[in-house]
Amino acid sequence: MAAVRTNGERTINRLAIVSVLIITMIFLAPIYWIASTAFKPRNLATTIPPTIVFTPEISPFVKLFTKRSQLRAPPSQEEYAAAPWWERLVFDGGEKVVRSGRGEVQLSGYPSRFMNSLIVAITSTVLAVGMGTFTAYGFSRFRVKGEQDLLFFILSTRMLPPVVVAIPMFLMYRAVGLNDTHLGLIILYTAFNLSFSVWLMKGFIDEIPKEYEEAALVDGYTRMQAFFKIVLPEAATGIAATAVFCFITAWNEYAFALIMTNRRAQTAPPFIPSQVGSGLPDWTVIASGTLLFLLPVAIFTFLLRNHLLRGMSFGAIRK
Amino acid sequence: MATAVLTTLDPKSRAASRGMSDMSIRNLFIIPTIVFLIVFNIFPLLYSLGYSFTDFRASSNAPANFVGLQNYRDLLADPFIWTNFTITAKYVIVSVVGQVVVGFGVALLLNRDIPLKGLLTTLLLLPMMLSMAVVGLFWKLLYDPSFGIINYALGLGTFEWLSNPNMALYAVALTDIWMWSPFVMLLSLAGLSAVPKHLYEAAAIDRAGSLYTFFRITLPLVAPILMIAIIFRTMEAFKTFDLAYILTSQPTTEVISIRLYKMAFQEWQTGMSCALAYIVLIMVLAITNIYVKYLNKVKER
């Protein structure tokens, strides 16, 4: 805005800076609390008053990945000495790692849910962005009868509440055996993200001058070659941004996953809340699981920062 | 679609005669997506439209009986469904108003020479990118009456947030405001930065007061983008499921999506839930229509 001139304006500007800093701290406080709880010993997670200064521990992450049971009696000296460092952390918390008959460490449900999230989010992103880019090019470069109506139809499928779509999908999946499968979720997320990807990619492709392809056509390229060799490289940034948005949406999705999966193909969002049972939950383990789950999205948000506006407005507003 | 016209190429030209024709490329690029969306979005909806006229229950093997409009009549006459809609409306109003006040307010603060503005903006945008279900879950700990940091920071003692039926909906809305104010802020910032500087300079020369400048210059010019943010957030708040479902199980927070979920997947009243889904669907499509109109309006500017 206008350059700072008077003393009064300077004071106002300083006040604005201080308020922005305070507001940012308030907004980040819940995320900070997740991160700090993920490194707390269990007995410090729920203290009155809340514990702010403590010696960080890695034990919540060990507990997150292993199946544990309560210790009836403290481990013998030899048992404790023979255990690897991470197992000792579990002993210290009054629990022991469950091992199979052959001594293999039993994993908790978390790693497989995390893997499921990765498989489903990555595959559906590749499909949605791939199909979306072709379709966006079609809409951008050729005249399509009823284009506005088709684009509205494409977008409206995304706007429906997940539960509304999930009821018939559940019945259909049950009939063909797609419930609780990766493929079932991948199809749902691809359909969900496809509309978004068409809208966003159309904006990016609209910005590439048609003259580039026309020059290539004159040089003897076919339309297909022009698309792959001229348009796709030009649209690379747009494709990357769209892919990250689709990945985040699929990664975070909860309602479809809750309804369509229960074990084999379950993703992390419905799994993590299911760990807060009726008893006293171990918030340090929940926090460590949450932190690992949020990390990819937090990193992507920083990479995406210049495209956030565009993505969140379906490509309509750009800077 | 079959009679569509080509744009850039003259079909008789040399370029057009090489490789596939533009028309077949267009069809190859567009039709699979349309077919995919019809098969996985429209067909299921037709399927559930059919079930909405029956007394089908997915939990039993009994054949579905055609009951005509009975489900719709029962739903519209059911006072409990109207309670769910009232709760949803209350939730939409509280959370959208909160998001606009906080989001637009922060955008006004940020719209000046502030050191590290880019970094602060990105940090402020973080909450809306995170998973509602997973982060929302953690708010249970933050709201805890005895050891939650919210009561501790505000000095509220053992104030009940989620287990108090009168407070729970506001607690859910507060978490939603935390998550989505950044969205309103992001769009408002775009609107604010598009206001031409010379308008402010002219107002300053005319010695216009800051309130006058705000209401006569800033607000009218930001209004269209702010409107997009409001309609989009209204639509999303109307559909809300994750947060309310995870944070509480109070009857006072049973928004329409939760009612629908329970009816379909806990009570297994499949036919009835398909009818309710259609009532919700029509409402959402109406809002979507307004939203898309606004999007196109802003796009054309």
UniProtKB/TrEMBL annotation, chain A:
GO cellular component: plasma membrane
Keyword Transport applies: yes
CDD domains for the chain: TM_PBP2
PROSITE patterns: ABC_TM1
One of the GO biological process terms: transmembrane transport
Keywords per UniProt: Cell membrane, Membrane, Transmembrane, Transmembrane helix, Transport
InterPro entries: BP-dep_ABC_trans_perm, MetI-like, MetI-like_sf
TM annotation in the entry: 12-35, 118-139, 151-171, 183-205, 226-251, 283-304
Membrane topology, as annotated: Multi-pass membrane protein
Protein name: Carbohydrate ABC transporter membrane protein 2 (CUT1 family)
Sequence ranges assigned to domain ABC transmembrane type-1 in this UniProt record: 114-304
Location(s) in or outside the cell: Cell membrane
Family affiliation: Belongs to the binding-protein-dependent transport system permease family.
Organism: Hoeflea marina
Top-level division of the source organism's lineage: Bacteria
Keyword Transmembrane belongs to the record: yes
TrEMBL record, chain B:
Keyword set, alphabetical order: Cell membrane, Membrane, Transmembrane, Transmembrane helix, Transport
CC per GO annotation: plasma membrane
Intracellular or extracellular location(s): Cell membrane
GO biological-process terms attached to the record: transmembrane transport
Lineage of the organism: Bacteria, Pseudomonadati, Pseudomonadota, Alphaproteobacteria, Hyphomicrobiales
InterPro entries (UniProt xref): MetI-like, MetI-like_sf
Alphabetical list of CDD domains matching this protein: TM_PBP2
Pfam families: BPD_transp_1 (PF00528)
Topological category with respect to the lipid bilayer: Multi-pass membrane protein
Protein family membership: Belongs to the binding-protein-dependent transport system permease family.
Transmembrane region(s): 28-47, 91-111, 118-139, 167-192, 213-232, 270-292
Keyword Membrane on entry: yes
Major site of localization recorded for this protein: membrane
Record protein name field: Carbohydrate ABC transporter membrane protein 1 (CUT1 family)
PROSITE patterns named in the record: ABC_TM1 (PS50928)
Location of the ABC transmembrane type-1 domain: 85-291
